[in-house]
Amino acid sequence: MSASDDNTSGEASTTATRKRPQPVEWDLVYFKVEELIFPVSPHRLIENSDVFSDMFHLPTGEDQRVEGTHREHPIVLESYDASDFDALLRVLYPTARDVISGVFKLEKEEWVGVLNLSTRWQMKEIRDHAINHLSKMSLSPVEKVALARAHKVAKWLKEGLTEIVAENPIRPLSELEALGLKTACRLLWIRNQISQDSNAQEITVTLGSLGCPNSACQASMFPNPRNCSNCARQISVDDTDAIYIYNNSSAQIHDGGTPGAGRARLVLNWQHLRCRHCSGYPIASGTYSCPLCLGIQGNFRFLPFGFRQNIQHFGPESDVNVNTLFKEEIAGGGSWDLLLDGYIAGEAPSSWGSVKGGRKKERKKKK
Length: 367
Known about the structure:
This protein is an alpha+beta fold. 40% of the residues lie in helices and 12% in strands.
């Protein structure tokens, strides 16, 4: 066999193993949300949502008129926000620039809109994607609880309640009441129980007290004021009321080896810190260059000039109490199967009428 025959055989083999494309032709469907008309190719909606898959495969009526096939007769989605629907479409139909850059940018409120619709319309992968992106954003503890309850996200509920209990000082009563009177009473009860048993101490942190973790360097990592990475509020170097450690039991204590007051070194990272103004992370994730030794650091050593004795801190105990008092609510939002069962029992849209109006009706479970 000649070399040319070998090449021909190789090309034929490659061609034979390649998956043959199967083009599917879809007509545009027109949706009306608020006062805006959205022309949409429905294939991504069908691929990602059983609700839309069922709807688009319903038989036509006797008059053969299919709603949404013309701009003049769109599918009207009542009680939905156009901005939420637009955000969902941007996730389902990314642009070439989004794909090439690998960066897909939506604002926090837009991701909340995606989470809302993907939960209502049973789009599990899109819902998980929205939760993942929102988890990387700065959500206050109250936001986490509110979003968790609205969209059945168990981990946010647990995190938010635990962080509220761990905050020092506690949030204003008006903010706690916004979570519901029963929730506010439970959180205050947990605080009271912990405070009775706590003999620990709190660390007063300032921007200037965040030092280089290099034991040979005594420099502050932040010798100048900076803005909170979440709310942009300016934090001065010596402001004792700007930031705090929301759970100092999770910080690391390193033994320096040299006897004396400086032997134990407390090592912190950006996740331990909270802004008292917004409860977000005052320092963004990443690494920072020490201004003295020029080392690149991801942690901070607490410099010993901000120690207060006999002030309570709230550690793992708050997690135990939150798990106990909110056990059923946390468990109820922790499984997609449980969430879907809840929708099947009376929360999932099952017809164009319920999709359009956001109403929740009974839907048969698929085998």
